[in-house]
Design a protein that fits this description.
The structure holds two protein chains of two kinds.
Chain A: H1 2-48, E1 49-53, E2 59-63, H2 74-87, E3 94-99, H3 108-116, E4 127-131, E5 140-144, H4 153-157, E6 163-165, E7 171-173, H5 183-187, E8 193-195, E9 224-226, H6 231-235, H7 241-245, E10 251-255, E11 260-263, E12 269-271, H8 272-278, E13 294-297, H9 311-315
Parallel strand pairs in A: 3-13
Antiparallel strand pairs in A: 1-2, 3-10, 4-5, 6-7, 8-9, 10-11, 11-12
Chain B: H1 2-15, H2 22-48, H3 63-75, H4 77-87, H5 97-118, H6 127-130, H7 137-157, H8 161-170, H9 176-185, H10 193-226, H11 238-264, H12 273-304, H13 307-317, H14 322-341, H15 348-375, H16 386-389, H17 395-418, H18 424-438
Classes of the chains: A alpha+beta, B mainly alpha.
Chain lengths: 320, 439
């Protein structure tokens, strides 16, 4: 019994020393591992971490490995599109130039526009009008989109901020918010706006589509629609639907800040200010002070005849 | 002693209509059924969209908006009779004050609904409060019409307090709960000098307060048009022009109501030919004022014939709206003025006919203001169906337009059934004053 006790004492001492060694080495290893890990971690910060904007608009930093992709719900996608649509494109001021000496009433712009925005045949974001100013002057065709005024009467009267002016000069309409009072139609001197008097053309096919304010699709019953300068195409760096569709080189589109406009048919680019200055460009009804962003080049030296059948309609608008 | 009998007779006479009788029930039944039919038309509009109306992308405001302007206009009469005339100490108007206030309140309360019926998305009405932009005249309109409705309700209620007490005490044949309501609403009125002074002061305050608010509601309503640059609307006199027109419409409405209540409630001793004569003169006065604004409104652009104005003036004077225009101007304004200047026409029955002409003319006038302008925008109307360039109201649209009119009649009928249509307390006070003067 005593012997056993002595033995166990001996064992205890030995074991203690043994254990001490193990613990010592262990903690040394652990410490160095910890140190290494920390060093590795701090090294990782720059390359393997990523800044993320949360849905609450807070900027945070997380490890790339911690990212799991979440499928976008229609709601989050709508929020994103609405924000992007209302913000517009920083640094740009979009303008359109319409050369009336080229327009032959081909109406490719009208159909391209109606296709893109899912419009009924009588709904025109862009409408080619037969114009005649006085009895002695020649009639001509005049495509008329929204003028995207810098002092837009429609935006002023809208009671709910459904129609708004963006920093890039484009005037949009948010049909998620529009109450359908049609005050903007009354206020617009260019008759540029249309209303969805009934269920829109593609109502069933468009169901479930996330609303893009830059395309105004899907259209909604009881709300306004209008020309958007093809804000969705412009965001991708492309020319508007009507501009690209024109076979006759009527349209130029570009950025006033860059002073460049591009012809939709020939794809040639011009200095915007020079084009306007050289061709006596003007805006519609400047006396109203709306400051349109659509410029017209006068129908000088037309290379085509005005169709006989259209004369009567053009003459209806002559002064009494 | 005679004075006491007199006041008892007054009380009895003026309380007599407050009971449910067969005529009232039948009238309410007719109104309710008609309202249901009209609301069904509105349901169709909600279901199928506004395609069921005659509106289009060019004439996008039609009968609903002209109806709205008419409603706001008619509601202004409360301010003219109870406000302006009482401040000018025109005692003859005192018995008509309550009729005017009831009409004002009914039209103001329903005006908001008329606008909702014109909205493409009435389900988003709350957006006006959530996303409201103060730059838009619609926000101003919402603000002032709500204010006017509240002030008009107070203007009806405060002078009514003594009468409510009389109702609670003297109406013996009504159920107890109804008496309790009268008692509760009379706010412990006990006819003390302090209370009398309080009522007098607050009525006077409201009479003053209501004038700018009433001017504001119709001025702002006129700005819904004048703040656009369309030919026919782009006018600086639209505010006073609309206000003057409102007095014409409202006075005609009050004359019609006077005639009907006088007949149905047997109030010949209280609404006398003298009152008709006086309010006939008032109608001439406001009509002349309105005529003056009309001359300005049409003569100035017609003289210059600027391109867009010329289209508008041409359409009105000799074009497609000429018949309606001349019917409105002659039948609703000029002929009534000529007739009412002559004393023999300022009698109840001729005045009923003339006022009906004026009231219909007032409605048509709003139509003439809203629609022709929209048919002629600056740029030609092309490549759209004929429906878009020529406005023809549909049956559904007409029914939806009638719905709010029925609502107004319902409100007036009910109010005129539960409260004395002529102020009892004031009438007695007035009689006592006359009696004491005689002594």
């Amino acid at each position: 019994m005593i012997e056993n006790n002595q033995k166990s004492n001996k064992n205890t001492r030995r074991e203690f020393l043994q254990n001490l060694g193990i613990v010592g080495v262990g903690s040394l290893l652990a410490g160095s591992a910890f140190f290494a890990a920390r060093k590795y971690d701090s090294k990782k910060t720059a390359a393997d971490r990523v800044k993320v904007l949360t849905a609450e608009n807070k900027l945070v930093e997380i490890e790339k490995s911690a990212i799991t992709e979440v499928e976008k719900t229609p709601a989050t996608q709508l929020t994103y599109l609405q924000k992007q649509g209302r913000d517009g494109i920083a640094g740009s001021r979009f303008v359109m130039v319409i050369d009336l000496s080229k327009c032959q009433n081909a109406r490719k712009c009208m159909s391209a526009c109606q296709n893109a925005h899912h419009l009924r045949p009588e709904q025109h974001h862009i409408n080619v009008l037969k114009m005649q100013e006085t009895e002695t002057t020649q009639p001509y065709y005049m495509p008329k989109p929204c003028q995207h005024c810098d002092n837009p009467p429609c935006v002023a009267v809208c009671p709910v901020d459904a129609t708004f002016k963006r920093q890039d000069g484009i005037v949009l309409i948010d049909n998620e918010r529009c109450i359908g009072c049609r005050f903007c139609i009354a206020a617009c001197p260019y008759s540029a706006r249309v209303f969805n008097w009934q269920e829109p053309l593609n109502a069933q096919a468009d169901e479930g589509l996330v609303y893009n304010v830059e395309l105004n699709v899907p259209q909604k019953k009881g709300t306004i629609s209008k020309c958007l300068f093809s804000a969705d195409r412009v965001r991708e760096g492309k020319l508007p639907y009507c501009v690209s569709a024109c076979p006759n080189g009527v349209y130029y589109f570009g950025d006033e800040n860059e002073d460049v406009v591009t012809n939709g048919t020939t794809k040639e680019s011009f200095r915007f200010k020079k084009l306007i200055a050289d061709n006596a460009g003007y805006t519609l009804m400047p006396e109203l002070g709306t400051k349109p962003r659509v410029y017209y080049l006068p129908p000088k030296g037309k290379s085509y005849p005005f169709q006989e059948k259209d004369r009567e309609e053009a003459a209806e608008h002559l002064p009494i | 002693m005679s004075e006491r009998i007199n006041s008892e007779k007054i009380t009895a006479d003026l309380l007599r209509p407050i009971r449910l009788n067969k005529g009232f029930m039948v009238w309410m039944g007719v109104l309710s059924i008609s309202l249901l039919v009209c609301l069904f038309a509105y349901f169709l509009q909600l279901r199928d969209g506004m395609i069921v109306t005659g509106l289009g992308d060019y004439v996008s405001w039609g009968m609903y908006i002209s109806n709205f302007v008419f409603f706001v206009a008619s509601s202004l009469i409360g301010m003219l009779i109870s406000g302006v005339l009482s401040l000018l100490k025109q005692k003859w108007a005192a018995p008509l004050a309550r009729i005017a206030e009831i009409i004002a309140l009914a039209f103001a309360a329903v005006a908001g609904l008329v606008i909702v019926m014109d909205m493409g998305r009435p389900d988003r009405l709350l957006n006006v409060f959530i996303h409201g932009r103060i730059q838009s005249p619609i926000l101003w309109d919402v603000t002032v019409i709500t204010s006017y409705m509240i002030v008009s309700a107070l203007f009806l209620y405060i002078p009514l307090i003594p009468d409510l007490k009389i109702c609670a005490q003297k109406l013996t044949n009504i159920p107890p709960f109804a008496r309790k309501i009268y008692e509760f609403l009379s706010l412990n009125w006990s006819d003390t000098p302090v209370q009398r002074e309080l009522i007098r002061k607050s009525t006077r305050t409201i009479a003053i307060l209501i004038i700018p608010i009433a001017l504001a509601i119709h001025t702002v309503t006129s700005w819904l048009f004048a703040n656009t640059s369309r030919a026919g609307w782009d006018s600086t006199i639209f505010g006073p022009y609309f206000v003057a027109g409102a007095f014409v419409a409202g006075t005609a409405a009050v004359i019609i109501a006077m005639f009907i209540f006088r007949k149905v409630y047997h109030l010949e001793e209280y609404i006398t030919e003298f009152h008709f004569d006086k309010i006939g003169q008032l109608l001439v006065l406001v009509s002349l004022l309105y005529l003056y604004f009309n001359v300005n409104e049409y003569m100035v652009p017609a003289y210059k014939m600027k391109r867009a104005d010329a289209f508008h003036i041409h359409e009105l004077f000799v074009g497609s709206h000429a018949l309606l225009f001349w019917i409105t101007q002659l039948g609703g304004l000029i002929i009534p003025i000529i007739l009412l200047i002559l004393k023999p026409f300022r009698k109840p029955i001729p005045m009923l006919v003339i006022s009906t002409m004026v009231l219909i003319g007032s409605w048509l006038k709003r139509y003439i203001i809203v629609i022709p302008t929209m048919e002629h925008p600056y740029l030609p109307v092309q490549n759209v169906p004929l429906k878009f360039s020529v406005y023809t109201p549909t049956l559904i649209e007409i029914l939806v337009t009638i719905a709010p009119m029925i609502m107004v009649l319902l409100i007036i009928t009910v109010l005129a059934k539960v409260i004395p249509i002529i102020p009892i307390h004031e009438t007695i006070e007035h009689q006592q004053e006359i009696a004491s003067k005689k002594k």
